Structures are given as C-alpha cells and as structure tokens.
Amino acid sequence: MDTDPVIGIDLGTTNSAAAFLGLNGPEIIPNAVGGRLTPSIVGVDESGTVVVGAAAKELQVLHPDRCANLFKRYMGTDHTLTVAGRTYTPEELSGLILRAIKADAAAFFKRPITRAVITVPAYFNDRQRKATIAAGRIAGLTVERILNEPTAAAIAYGFHESGEDKKVLIFDLGGGTFDVSVVELFEGTLEVKSSSGESALGGEDFTRAMVARILETRGLAYERAEVRTPKLVSRLLQQCERAKCLLSREESVKVRIPDDDGEFTASATELQVTREQLERWVTPILARIELPIRRVLGDAKLTKDQLDEVILVGGVTRMPLIIRRVTELLGKDPRRRLNPDEVVALGAAVQAALVGKSAAVEDLVVTDVAPFTLGIEISKQFGNDRRDGYFDPLIDRNTTIPVSRVKRYSTLSPNQTAIIVHIYQGESRKVGENLALGEFEVKGIPPGPAGQPVDIRFTYDLNGVLEVEATVVATRKTVTHVIAKHAKGMTEDQIQRAVRAMEKLKTHPRDEEANRFVLLRAERVFKELPAELRQSLGLLLDGFEAALESRNKDTITRHREELERFLTLFDPSADDPNRETE
Ligand code: ADP
Ligand code: MG
User: Fold this and answer.
1) Per residue in 458-480, is it b (16+ CB within 10 Å) or e — as a string?
2) Quick check: is 532 in a domain?
3) Annotated catalytic, 506?
4) In angstroms, what is the span from residue 173 Cα to ligand 1's centroid?
5) pLDDT at 488
6) With contact defined as beta carbons under 8 Å apart, do 155 and 351 qualify?
7) Which domain holds residue 214?
8) Could you report the per-residue pLDDT of 53-62, keeping only the tens digit for each?
9) Which of 125, 233, 308, 509 could connect to 166 by a Cys-Cys bridge, CB 3.0–4.6 Å?
10) Domain end: 286, 306, 328, which one?
11) CATH number at residue 248
C-alpha cells in the first residue's frame, strides 16, 4: 500500500517554499505561476477575491492597503491584521499561504496532499509553534513535525548522516530578520545549542538604505519623503528591491526614478548604481551582524575555530559582500551549494520523507530567549516636525532571558510634570504596527525646562512576565507596572471556526491563478509605461479581459500568452534576478 507523501514547507516571513524528496535528493515544488518561492503575502483584489503569493505581490505595488505581509512576526499573539476591511488572525493568513502551497503540491503530484513538516525559527516559543500547527490545520494539513529552521538547513546539507559529531553555524539573513544559530550533531541527534540574531535586520533594510541614498541625491530625506511623497518612496522601494538583487550578479544596474506621484512620466530619470556603491551603503547596517555572531558562539561555548562548517541561508546571502564578510568573520568558506532561499524547504523535505518512514531525525532546541522585541513609544524630531508613533526597543527579540535593561528618556516640553509610558511588543519601527501591551502614567516630575530625565527599566523573566519600572531621576521616585500577557493558543473550536470562515472566502480556482497574476502584473506595468506603449498594452488587456469573460480556455490561453510576450519585452522587471544561470 502506498502512503500519502509528506511534504516539507518553509513558511517564511518574506517567502515560503515547499519541497519533496525525489530520487536525486530534495526538490522544490513549483507554484501555480511556475515560481520556486511563494511570497508570503495575502491580498484581496477589486472583486473581493483573495489572492496569495506572486499575484498578491503584484497587487501590493499598487494597493498596499489591500494586502498583508510579515504576519509571521505575529504568530502566537493576539495581534490581528486587517485586509480590505476584514480582520484576519496571523494563523488564518499563514493558513491561506499553506493552502495555496498544498494546492500546488497536489497539482504537482496529481493527488491530494494532507501531510507536512513545517519549519519555524529556533527561537519560536511553544505558543508560536502551536500557532504554526493551527495554521496548517486551517489549511487542511496535518502537521507531522515542527522542525527548527537551522536544523532543516543542516539536514539539507546532509549533516545528519555524516556519522561523526559536528558543530555547524547557520547564518540566516532573510527579508526582515537575521538569525544565527549553532547546531550540533551528537549521536544522531541535531540540537540547536544556541541562537541569536536581530529581529529587525534584513534585506529590506538594504533596500531602504539604497532608496535613502538615491533620495539624498535629489536633496530629499527618507523620513520626510515617506510623509510627503509616499508613492514616490513605495515605487522606488520596488525598483531598488530588484536592482539590489541584480547587483548580486551584475557590476552595475540602472534604477528608474519615478516622479513625486510614483509615476514614470516621460521626464522620469535614470540613475546608474554600481555594486561597489551598494556595498558602501549597506556596510554600516552589516556591522550589526557581528554582535549576534559573537553571542551565539559565546552561548554555545565555542570559538570560531571549533566550528566544523558554516552554512548560508536566506536570500540576502546571495550578495557577494555577505559571503566575503562571513568568510572574514568566521575564517571559513561557507557552504552555499544549495540556493540559500530554498535550503530550509529542502531540509524540511528530507525530514518529511523520514517522518513518512518513521525514521525522522531528532531535533532539539535548548535556548530560552525573548520571542519578541519589547519597548516603548517615543516621538522623533525631523527638522521642525515632531512625530509620535515610533517604537524604541529596550529588549531585542532573541535576547537570552531572564534579562533586565534600562534606558534614559526625557520630557519633551517645559514644565512637563507627567509622562505616559506606552509599552509595545513587535518588530516594526512604528508602534501602530506593533502590539500594545499596556500603559501607565509617571507623575511628580519636578517642573523645569524640557529634558528632565526618566529611567525606564524592562525586566523579562522565564515565565514571560514583563515588569516595567519608571524612575524620575531627580526625585528617585519609582512606578512599577507588571504585564503578564498570556495569549492562549487556538482551541479546537476556534480552529474549526477558522476553517469554516476560510471556506467562505472567495478565492480563485488554482488554474486561474496564472491569469490573475498576469492581469495584476499587466495593470502595474501599464502605469509604468509611456503613453505610446500604454495604448498597445491597453488593447491587449481589453482582449484578455474579454477572453476571461468568455470562459473559453483556448481563447484565454491565447490572449494570456500574447500579453505575456508583451510583458517580457516591456516590463522593466521581467526577468527573475535569481534565475538559474548554468
Ligand atoms: P525570509 O526568510 O525572510 O522569508 P528569504 O530568505 O526569501 O526570506 O530572503 C528574502 C530577502 O532576500 C529579500 O530581502 C530579498 O530582497 C533578498 N534577496 C533575494 N535574492 C537576492 C539577491 N540575489 N541579492 C540580494 N538580496 C536578495
Ligand atoms: Mg527564511
């Protein structure tokens, strides 16, 4: 009797991927539009239909308000996200991604897929792991195992079968997070000995730095431009994201600069950016990888010379600069035979096959770390503007607990005698996107000029209890506020309710995904083209929409292919910067 295949899934913050164990080792399962990675983005298009992955990424360029991303950061919390007027839990959004992946795998194997191994970061706590299992259940998947991402990377490189004991450092730089772990193979068991990182450090920061420097050449400051010309900034972010990836294999690329409304008008300018420039721009950000590396080695009680191997994970490690830096810092050539943004899914696929044969590799994790960044709201000064709503972290995600940190703040106005401390957890720069944990008032600040100091101390213990203490420096008076926030995992009832709610959502049948994707992409490209080309694209789009109405499969395919040919020629983002070049 043949049992159902078990697939491996990397449910990532930026991108997700699925894989299975083939005859020649693990292989990626392509998605509905032929891609190897599925962007972890969920959107709702104009017809009120849910779109995920590549189509949602296209939708996000023009309608960011109709899309949700980065929801992995909220797994295991009460934080919900609103997309086009409806509220979703992070489990539901992850469930929608998993459901699309399940459908892609079923189409690939031509049989239903119901079982999976899903990976999570090593620092995920019990609640976050349960939330991941719930997301799988919502998608109709039985989650056979939860596997730590660094362990999955080690498995993908075959360390579990090496026979000898080994110590491996996994360096994972993704879209928005940096995770570094030491994994040890000991008597056939893979154990995450220590894990560290930075919750807000990743490829997005590199893209933002690039945008900031380009804006600078036009005399604009990023923070200001974000407020005054948000469309210019969001379009430029999209342009630079792509340019940044291209610069991993090209020495120099052109970046098109839209006008203040984010439009590429006839007068749109182009700027040549070289790899060397990009490297110079991101070097200050890259300095932040050093401390976590030192910490992870310290926590594992190892020196870098005691490491047997270093593995690169995460799309950003395709950058030659990162490979050089890691080699310098650790004194070893890192392993990078496998695509860094696929390696976790590949390892999950190997584990999945072993689960199918009841021979899974034991995977342990021993670290106790703060699962989220904790901090307070502050305001920032930009020229003459003072703006509220910024998040100032006191305890970084991934900090080993118990931990206590203190930071000095000061009053903003003359004769201010009280402040309200707003406490948040989360990974965003803006408190609006983080989870409010509570607030309290500190009174009795002596009247005087602005700038009266107040010390805020955060203490986080092993039970997840957060104690916030504010001390008015002048009087030594202290106020203490305790938060023991225990968001419960989803109950069986809640999961079943979510399953029914998901069934009611309007979605496109899988074989229409490619049509949706091309349609949304064409609409984006339309806005980027000069008038003469817009006309031709407009005609093709009209033809395609009419074809979709006709519901005739051949007509639809013919029109879609025509449209795709046009896009290949005129979409400035047509070719994949990470396409395999053999
Ligand atoms: P995550 O683990 O966060 O889901 P990935 O490992 O897929 O994400 O990494 C996504 C990040 O990698 C993005 O910031 C993307 O810009 C970056 N990236 C992908 N390919 C390249 C490349 N060729 N050069 C530089 N950065 C890249
Ligand atoms: Mg990842």
Assistant:
1) bbbeeebebebbbbbeeeeeebe
2) no
3) no
4) 8
5) 66
6) yes
7) 203-286
8) 999 999 998 8
9) 308
10) 286
11) 3.90.640.10
pLDDT tens digits, 261-312: 888 877 778 899 999 999 999 999 999 999 999 999 998 999 999 999 999 9
Q: Tell me if 119 CB under 6 Å of ligand 1.
A: no
Residue 418 lies in a domain: yes
12 lines ligand 1 (CB under 6 A): yes
From 14, 118, 149, 178, the mutation candidate for ligand 1 (largest count of ligand atoms within 8 A of CB) is 14
Question: Is 10 part of the annotated catalytic residue set?
Answer: yes
Return the ligand number nearest the Cα of 316.
1
- The CA 133 to ligand 1 mean position distance, Å, reads 25
SS3 545: helix
Which one of 92, 144, 172, 179 is the catalytic residue? 172
How close is the Cα of 360 to the center of ligand 2, in Å? 22
The answer to whether 304 is a known catalytic residue is no
Q: What is the CATH number of the domain that holds 434?
A: 2.60.34.10
3-state secondary structure of 283: helix
HEC per residue, 123-160: CCCHHHHHHHHHHHHHCCCEEEEEEEHHHHHHHHCCHH
430 DSSP 8-state letter: B
- Is position 135 within any domain? no
